[in-house]
Amino acid sequence: MKDFIILERIIGIDIGLRNTGYGIIDFDQKSEKIIEGGVIKTDSKKNLDERLLTIFKDLDFIYKKYSPKYSSMEDLHSRYRNLKTAIIMGHARGVACAVSALNKVPVYHYQPTQIKNVITGSGRADKNQMIKTIANRLNSPAITNEHVADAFATSICHWVMFSSIKKV
Predict the structure, then answer these.
(1) pLDDT in tens, 58-90
(2) What share of the chain in percent tops pLDDT 70?
(3) For residue 168, what pLDDT is reported?
(4) How far apart are CA 96 and CA 38, in angstroms?
(5) Are the CB atoms for 51 and 42 separated by under 8 Å?
(6) Digit-coded pLDDT (tens) for 109-137
(7) Beta strands 8-14; 19-27: pairing state
(8) Which run of H or of E encompasses 122?
(9) Where are the beta strands (DSSP E) in 47-111?
(10) What is d(CA 88, CA 111) in angstroms, rounded to the nearest whole number?
(11) At what angle are helices 112-120 and 146-167 packed, to 10 degrees?
């Protein structure tokens, strides 16, 4: 009897108003394969509503093109220096959640320290450590952008958490 291979396509999203990273990986029990990764950039000279619309349209295009099965993103953390930043990040996260719902893709949320711990073994890993670890794990030295690396890390985190739940 052949092994039954379950293929899961997961999009990880690193939310930001200026730069929203995304990373799509196909996972099975034995491998992980990068499908696409990039950054959605918004023009800081534009109004908030226009910037959110850019994120919405670009993410919707990505979802329609790559058809992920699951979406994974960081939870909002409580250490924002000011309330306005937290509210703006909440808007951007809401847009990403709405795009996911529109495309009928469930969203899973993880704490930043949880993602770092799954990826590096330390919840206090810095950006450079995350980039290097992701580039090495995915055998892709071209991953040098922190937003893309964080998005791939979020995708991997969901696969690790999802896989451990399925084994129970």
Answers:
(1) 999 999 999 999 999 998 766 667 888 888 999
(2) 92
(3) 46
(4) 15
(5) yes
(6) 999 999 999 999 999 999 999 999 999 99
(7) antiparallel
(8) none
(9) 70-74, 107-110
(10) 18
(11) 80
Model confidence pTM above 0.85: yes
Find the mean pLDDT for residues 17-22: 97
3-state class of 36 per DSSP? strand
Q: Which residues contact 26 (CB under 8 A, 6 or more apart)?
A: 7, 8, 9, 32, 33, 35
Query: Is residue 1's pLDDT more than 70?
Result: no
40 CB burial (10 A radius; 0-12, 13-18, 19+): buried
- Residue 161: count other Cβ atoms within 10 Å of its Cβ: 16
Are the CB atoms for 27 and 18 separated by under 8 Å?
Answer: no
CB of 143 within 8 A of CB of 131?
yes
Find the angle CA(114)-CA(132)-CA(124) to the nearest 5 degrees. 35
> Would you say residue 103 has pLDDT above 80?
yes
Length of the chain: 168
Strands (E), 2-42: 8-14, 19-27, 32-41
